[in-house]
């Protein structure tokens, strides 16, 4: 078990706490039983923490999607201000929690990240809203990885989110070590191929930014780098983009690999691109060649081991 776990915020009901309006929970076993081996959770229940109690009347969002009201469904009490006042205070506290991400409860009027029902004046719902707390959280932490538990059941979205929280942890550790152009060049070198897999456009922009780093104020450089890397990692690493990186990796062995080894690796990469193999298959073979031929540059590439292999995030075809 990792000694220095990733600190991850999460809706308390997803962790098994009986805090929903009817005293139930929505325990998500993937979060607690699998991801929990690498994560220390910071539970948050907006309704209970702002004083609404258990059990409580159900609520929903009404009105303007940009500025919805939180209304109880039976007695029609407007609890918006109570929620917002608490959220502003709680968000200040969360700034000191060293979070690397947050998992929200889907469809919740307080914590839904997207597609939350908002009722119009005729009582008709449209799935166009954001939960009040979730919306304020994302404004307060615009670069923090966030996701909903329902979307984490999708293998591609799960891999992307978990990769991002591990990356954010490495970035925070880098910042704790102090800012310097040399250290930023090292961090970028380690992550170049990871960025390429998500966005060749951002990969090129990040490389240009670092190469011209001496022309910038150090704080401005770091802020621009963090913004670009965050944008890059939000984009999903597709089979086509991963295959491009795999061929790029293959190029480092052009003098060492035999003709048969090159042919085998090409076949495996193409089978992966077509959806016949999961990504872990070509990655395992390339990691074998990295060790066999002692490739020092590739040994430091985070792309080859961006998260614990035990999580099996690259095992889906």
UniProtKB/TrEMBL annotation:
DUF1722 domain segment(s): 192-308
InterPro entries on file: 2-thiour_desulf (IPR007553), DUF1722 (IPR013560), UCP037004 (IPR017087)
Descriptive protein name: Uncharacterized conserved protein YbgA, DUF1722 family
């Amino acid at each position: 078990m990792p000694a220095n776990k990733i600190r991850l915020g999460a809706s308390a009901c997803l962790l098994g706490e009986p805090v929903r309006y009817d005293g139930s929970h929505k325990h998500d076993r993937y979060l607690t039983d699998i991801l929990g081996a690498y994560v220390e959770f910071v539970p948050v229940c907006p309704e209970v923490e702002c004083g609404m109690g258990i059990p409580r009347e159900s609520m929903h969002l009404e009105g303007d999607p940009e500025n919805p009201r939180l209304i109880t469904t039976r007695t029609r009490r407007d609890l918006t201000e109570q929620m917002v006042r608490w959220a502003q205070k709680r968000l200040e506290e969360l700034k000191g929690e060293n979070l690397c991400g947050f998992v929200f409860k889907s469809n919740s009027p307080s914590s839904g990240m997207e597609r939350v029902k908002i009722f119009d004046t005729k009582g008709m719902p449209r799935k166009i809203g954001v939960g009040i707390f979730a919306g304020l959280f994302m404004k307060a932490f615009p670069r923090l990885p966030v996701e909903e538990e329902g979307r984490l059941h999708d293998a591609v979205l799960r891999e992307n989110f978990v990769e991002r929280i591990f990356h954010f942890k490495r970035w925070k550790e880098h910042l704790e070590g102090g800012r310097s152009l040399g250290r930023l060049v090292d961090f970028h070198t380690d992550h170049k191929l990871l960025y390429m897999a998500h966005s060749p456009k951002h990969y090129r922009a990040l490389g240009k930014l670092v190469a011209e780093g001496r022309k910038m104020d150090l704080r401005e450089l770091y802020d621009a780098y963090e913004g670009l890397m965050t944008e890059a990692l939000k984009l999903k690493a597709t089979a086509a983009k991963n295959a491009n990186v795999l061929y790029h990796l293959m190029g480092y062995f052009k003098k060492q690999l035999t003709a048969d080894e090159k042919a085998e690796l090409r076949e495996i990469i193409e089978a992966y691109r077509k959806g016949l193999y999961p990504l872990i298959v070509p990655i395992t073979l390339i990691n074998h060649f990295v060790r066999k031929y002692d490739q020092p540059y590739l040994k430091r590439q985070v792309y080859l081991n961006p998260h614990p292999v035990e999580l099996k995030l690259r095992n889906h075809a």
